[in-house]
Specification:
The complex is a heterodimer of chains A (226) and B (351).
Chain A: E1 10-14, H1 21-29, E2 40-41, E3 44-45, H2 51-56, E4 59-61, H3 74-86, H4 100-112, H5 128-141, E5 146-150, H6 158-169, E6 176-180, H7 184-190, E7 193-198, E8 201-206, H8 208-213, H9 215-222
Parallel strand pairs in A: 1-6, 1-7, 4-5, 5-6
Antiparallel strand pairs in A: 2-3, 7-8
Helix pairs in contact in A: 3-4, 3-5, 4-5
Chain B: H1 7-26, H2 29-52, H3 63-79, H4 84-105, H5 111-131, E1 141-142, H6 159-181, H7 184-194, H8 196-201, H9 206-232, E2 234-235, H10 242-255, H11 261-278, H12 284-297, H13 302-327
Antiparallel strand pairs in B: 1-2
The chains are: A alpha/beta (226), B mainly alpha (351).
Chain lengths: 226, 351
Amino acid sequence: MSLRVTRGERLAVIGPNGAGKTTLFNLLCGELRPSGGIVRIGGEEATREDAVARARRGLSRSFQQNTLFDETTVRDNLALAVLARLGRNWVFWRDPAREPRVTARIEALARDLGLAEVLDRPVGALAYGTRRQLEIALALAREPEVLMLDEPTAGMSPEETRAILELVRGLPREMTVVLIEHDLDLVFEFAERVVVLDYGRVVFDGTPGAARASPVVREIYMGSEV
Amino acid sequence: MFRLFDPLRTTVALALLIAGLWWARTGDYFGREILAEMAVFAIAAMSLDLLAGFPRLVSMGHGLFVGIGAYAYTVATVLAGWPPAVAFPLAVAAGAGAGLLVGLATVRARDIFYIMATLAFGQMGYVWVVRSGELGGDDGLAGAPRPDLSALGLDLSDSATFATLLVSVAALVYLLLGRLLASGFGRTLLAIGQNERRVRALGIAPGPYKVAATTLSGAVAGLAGVLAAMHSMYVSPELFHWTWSGEALIMTILGGIGSLVGPALGAAAVVWLKYAVSAWTEHWGLFLGLFLILAVWTGGQGLYGYLERLRRWSATVRDARGREHAGGDRAHQAVRGPHRHRPGVAPGDAG
């Protein structure tokens, strides 16, 4: 498959279960090494770089299954991500998370993601939807150039989903956002471009409007209802 | 997030320190020897907790670092004739160096593979020392001197002074490691232990943190080795043996892994148990085993974990009573279900 995403694009990747959406994310983020082919970021080849190097290049992702630091608080989770962004993890004698610019950033993220009320609660005790919000917050805390969200609203209530949609819409225009999502209403509201995968191939690439009308997409993914 | 001055942690640490200092003053000779052994094990167990409790690198070869510290000090003073003031930092540096090498060699190993790799390193050290003629082989080496601190008015040949010094060093190690764990570095170690995948996704390479932690842990374990050598004025290959490493791990788990003060508590408890039970039966290990099984069955959070549960339970009861006074029928809302978390990482710990 071949896929090019331009800076600032709002792209949704959809497809049936097992189509290879998350595998595509894992390949792009460096968690999986491709057996063939090339991954380029900003025109530079990054195929052999691992997840750490790609995150430092500005690629940030959320996971389909919550991948959080369950045994600490929301604040501590966000602190680690903010410190990673600022390169302040190698501080041996003080806690840089207490610095005003770090706490301000943590609190701003918590406000944006609706986590302000639970900032000092342990993550393991939070409701599922709240944990999903933290999942996105961690990805955003790195202030990425490319934000990749893997089913961010899975398991969320309609209100929470709406809040996430508003948040993603409000992200800076220069930030590229790639979204894997099953909620088609959300996809059509959010995306400027839709890519449909099936069995690891791109079977459709176009605007949301064209996706709705495409017989191929109807057949393999949406059924006849759309 | 690790909070050094968490009220419960501080209470336990102060209680241990006060009990230790009191015991050093009032105990008999035999008691003071036991106290010195407790302090050595407490330092070793705390250094192990830095690895096993935070980045969750469960080392089964920690005796290697302790043994290297002990032998480096003894060889430098007894065989090379160097003064303790030179041998001491050298031995700690040797522990750190060993930590660095083991850290680099095991940086990609995880879980059972890490345990096996560290076990192998420890046993390699053991076999090397046992086979080495210069190091005394099976018989070990005798004669490691205690430093002369008469300039400070301290006579370390006096068991009370020596035990007081060791308890004080253990307290200092606790404070230094606690400060380290409450730093940006400590936050990162804790995160690596909880979810390495996410750590990578955040652009943090876990490897250098693991190596740094192993190096620091090796240095502190080397210090424990130096103190062990000074204490018994004799070093034996047993320090390297996996059973020694296993004992340090048992102390760490029994006391409360990941709480820093717990392993010190565990060290005191196990050494006490060893002497108290062996006074009337030689099968003290059986009792230790039973305690360990009990600790694992009841959640694996050790003695410190029990204290934390007690604190949470009393807070819940207090909370419920407060609400009863305030709101009558809403009181039940205050009683939250039990929530498992690691000792040492208190819910509500603010960054």
